[in-house]
Structures are given as structure tokens and as C-alpha cells.
Design brief:
Keywords: Membrane, Transmembrane, Transmembrane helix
Transmembrane segments: 53-75, 96-117, 129-149, 161-178
Radius of gyration: 20 Å
Mean pLDDT: 83
């Protein structure tokens, strides 16, 4: 149950920030008896909304897969400054280490689904789609290095290459989101 709470925390934060930024406009329907409104939502709008939600799912799973890096790097400092939570930090580190590959594969799969959904919605590959495709391709290359790394744990150069490729992927993903 503790792990589920840890994994659901990023989802809660994204939805809370989304609600605070977008808000919930108050609409009054008084005196609108015979008025008709044009809706610019067609079927593609639904797919686009689903694609965007799946895209945010990709961001969350990338964050969950990458969260192992700061936890492991700061483990000594965290334990020395917060000894009361030593057991929690160690169990979190073990959990992230155990499921890092699974969460990474899930992030890759969700990003591919996001790309397919958005391409199906728009019908063409625009500039932001090309940037997203570049991020997915770079993520695939990084996952191949990660797969080799999982078989050879002592490969420091493989680990550095994997992390560098993921860092470039995150940079491209950031540009993709901003555009």
C-alpha cells in the first residue's frame, strides 16, 4: 500500500496543478432556452484529448523511472539528515531499483501510444510531432543501452551513456511540451 501511495503522488500533483492552472469556469445556464451553440469539438478533438492525457502519463512514468537516480545519489545524505526515515528511503530505493526497467518499458510504450494517438488525431506529422518522434527514437536507443546494462551491471560507460541519452530525451521532451 505504501508503494501505491508513492506512485500515485505524481498523478495527484499533476491533476492538482492542472486544476489550479486551468481552473473550473463557472457557467450560468439561465435564460438559454432556445439558443444553440456551435461546438468545435469533433471526433478528432476526443482523440487529441486522449493523446494529451496519455502524453502526460508518459511524463509521469518517465519521472517515476528516473526518480531512482536522485534517490540513490542522495541516499547517504538523506539517511544522515533524516535517520528516522532510513527504512522508508531504503525501501523506496529497493522498490525503484526493482521496477525501474518495468516502469521504463511502460514509459516507452505509453509514449508510442501517445504518438500514434496524436498522429491519428492530426492526420499529419507537424513540427511538434517530429520533435516528439525524435524523443521516442532517442528513448528507444537509451532503452537498448539500458537492456545491455541490465545484463552487465558493472558497465560504468554503459550507465553513463544510458543516463546521457535519457537526459537528452528529457530535454527534447521538454521542448516538445513547450511547443
Amino acid at each position: 500500500m505504501k508503494y501505491i501511495k508513492i506512485l500515485l503522488l505524481p498523478f495527484f500533483m499533476v491533476f492538482t496543478l492542472s486544476f489550479l492552472i486551468v481552473g473550473n469556469p463557472t457557467v450560468s445556464a439561465d435564460h438559454d432556452f432556445n439558443e444553440t451553440y456551435e461546438h468545435d469539438d469533433d471526433e478528432d478533438g476526443i482523440y487529441e484529448d486522449v493523446g494529451k492525457a496519455v502524453g502526460w502519463g508518459t511524463v509521469i512514468t518517465l519521472g517515476a523511472a528516473g526518480f531512482i537516480f536522485p534517490i540513490r545519489r542522495s541516499m547517504k545524505w538523506l539517511i544522515s539528515h533524516y535517520p528516522k526515515y532510513k527504512k522508508t528511503f531504503i525501501s523506496l530505493s529497493k522498490f525503484l531499483g526493482k521496477y525501474h526497467i518495468s516502469i521504463g518499458i511502460l514509459a516507452l510504450a505509453i509514449s508510442i501510444i501517445h504518438g500514434i494517438t496524436m498522429y491519428g488525431s492530426e492526420g499529419e506529422l507537424e513540427s511538434d510531432g517530429i520533435i516528439g518522434l525524435a524523443a521516442v527514437l532517442l528513448m528507444i536507443v537509451a532503452s537498448l543501452f539500458g537492456f545491455i546494462l541490465s545484463k552487465n551491471k558493472k558497465g560504468k560507460s554503459l550507465r553513463n551513456t544510458h543516463m546521457t541519452l535519457i537526459a537528452f530525451t528529457l530535454l527534447i521532451v521538454f521542448v516538445h511540451i513547450v511547443l
